[in-house]
């Protein structure tokens, strides 16, 4: 299990570094916009945080998110301020480790990320797969924005990431024209199917605020992915150097 | 590329190598599913800003 342990180790460090960096970027770039949007959300009277649990309780009861009554009690949530920031850091670190595990494991199938520079390119691919492609159909949304059924959107999001990832893999590692054409089809297909859209786009959130948020999310995620890839590549290079040194010293 | 397979897990069979990598990827997917996609309300609220900022489907 050495390989598994090493993959987890590299991913944990890379996820920790990139996750903390992302949380700090979010504190300046995205969270203030979320807080602004929450003013509109509470002003609108309806706070639909409970909608997710309502849907799991009665999945057939509502076809759309908006149809769920927002009357029920709100569950536990971190208090605004330091507690909320700390939970955001924690969530970002855990997300970072999750993405790093996927990135390291998949890149090892292709021979591994040799250097921080190669890592930057792997990071670009990760950005394309997990931010850009799903974000085309389902742009980053602020609280109180209309959205289609949560399950349908989650399924589309995951399917789009998988198809885009498979497509990029075929382009990068299978050097054949038919497979490249298949790759393009895989990348395009989710957008032909189309992401689940809400019945109405009417929203209390000003268009300008949302646009600002889309830009902030996309750019912060780009930096996150570049950093994640670079740290994985750098650590792995250092790791293999150390391993070689150890082997030599024991020889 | 012999260093590539030797560096992160010295001398393991190809099959065991693939199994371990698949397990690591699966662990990552499981973690992401929990933080970003789980419908448990407390998890949603704790990771709320992160979900919005990562453009995970939310609410």
Q: Which descriptors apply to this entry?
A:
heterodimer, A: 0% strand, B: 59 residues, mainly alpha
Task: Characterise this structure.
- The complex is a heterodimer of chains A (251) and B (59).
- With 251 residues, chain A is an all-alpha fold.
- Chain A has a domain at 2-47 and 81-145 and 203-250.
- Helices cover 73% and strands 0% of the residues of chain A.
- Chain B has a domain at 13-53.
- Chain B contains 4 helices and no strands.
- Chain B has helices at residues 2-8, 14-37, 41-46, 48-53.
- The chains are: A mainly alpha (251), B mainly alpha (59).
- Chains A and B meet through helix 1, helix 3, helix 4, helix 5 and helix 6 of A and helix 1, helix 2, helix 3 and helix 4 of B.
Topology of helices and strands:
The complex is a heterodimer of chains A (251) and B (59).
Chain A: H1 2-29, H2 31-43, H3 51-57, H4 82-109, H5 116-137, H6 150-173, H7 177-193, H8 207-250
Helix pairs in contact in A: 1-4, 1-8, 5-6, 5-8, 6-7
Chain B: H1 2-8, H2 14-37, H3 41-46, H4 48-53
What is the CA-atom radius of gyration of chain B, in angstroms?
17 Å
Q: Roughly how many Å is the radius of gyration of chain A?
A: 21 Å
Oligomeric status? heterodimer
- Overall spatial form of chain B: elongated
Distance between the termini of chain A: 23 Å
Q: How far is the first residue's CA from the last residue's CA of chain B? A: 46 Å
Biggest interface, chains and residues, is: A-B, 73 and 49 residues
One letter per element, helices H and strands E, the order of chain A comes to HHHHHHHH
User: What helical percentage do the residues of chain A reach?
Assistant: over 70%
Total number of helical segments of chain B? 4
Q: For the residues shown, what is the average pLDDT of chain B?
A: 84
The number of distinct β-strands of chain B equals 0
User: How many helices of chain A?
Assistant: 8
Low-pLDDT segments, ≥5 res of chain A? 49-72
- Beta-sheet strand percentage of chain A? under 5%
Structural class by helix and strand composition of chain B: mainly alpha
Number-wise, the strands of chain A total 0
Q: Could you say which structural class the secondary elements and strand pairing of chain A correspond to? A: mainly alpha
- Give the helix proportion of chain B (percent range): over 70%
């Amino acid at each position: 299990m050495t390989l598994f342990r090493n993959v987890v180790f590299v991913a944990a460090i890379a996820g920790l570094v990139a996750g903390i960096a992302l949380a700090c970027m979010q504190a300046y770039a995205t969270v203030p916009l979320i807080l602004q949007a929450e003013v509109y959300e509470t002003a609108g009277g309806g706070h639909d945080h409970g909608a997710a649990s309502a849907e799991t309780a009665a999945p057939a009861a509502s076809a759309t998110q908006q149809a769920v009554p927002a009357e029920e009690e709100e569950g536990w949530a971190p208090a605004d301020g330091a507690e909320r920031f700390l939970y955001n850091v924690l969530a970002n670190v855990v997300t970072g480790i999750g993405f790093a595990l996927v990135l390291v494991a998949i890149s090892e199938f292709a021979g591994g990320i040799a250097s921080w520079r190669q890592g930057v390119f792997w990071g670009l691919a990760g950005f394309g797969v997990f931010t850009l492609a799903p974000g085309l159909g389902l742009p980053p949304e602020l609280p109180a924005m209309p959205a289609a059924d949560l399950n349908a959107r989650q399924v589309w999001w995951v399917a789009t990431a998988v198809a885009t990832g498979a497509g990029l893999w075929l382009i990068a590692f299978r050097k054949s024209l038919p497979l490249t054409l298949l790759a393009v089809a895989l990348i395009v297909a989710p957008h032909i199917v189309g992401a689940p859209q809400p019945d109405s786009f009417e929203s209390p959130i000003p268009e300008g605020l949302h646009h600002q948020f889309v830009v902030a999310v996309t750019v912060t995620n780009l930096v996150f992915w570049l950093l994640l890839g670079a740290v994985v590549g750098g650590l792995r290079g250092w790791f293999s150097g150390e391993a070689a040194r150890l082997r030599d010293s024991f020889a | 590329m012999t260093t590539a397979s030797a560096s992160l897990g010295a001398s393991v069979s190809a099959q065991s190598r693939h199994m371990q990598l698949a397990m690591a990827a699966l662990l990552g997917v499981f973690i992401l599913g929990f933080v970003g996609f789980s419908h448990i309300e407390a998890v949603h609220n704790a990771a709320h800003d992160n979900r919005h900022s990562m453009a995970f489907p939310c609410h």
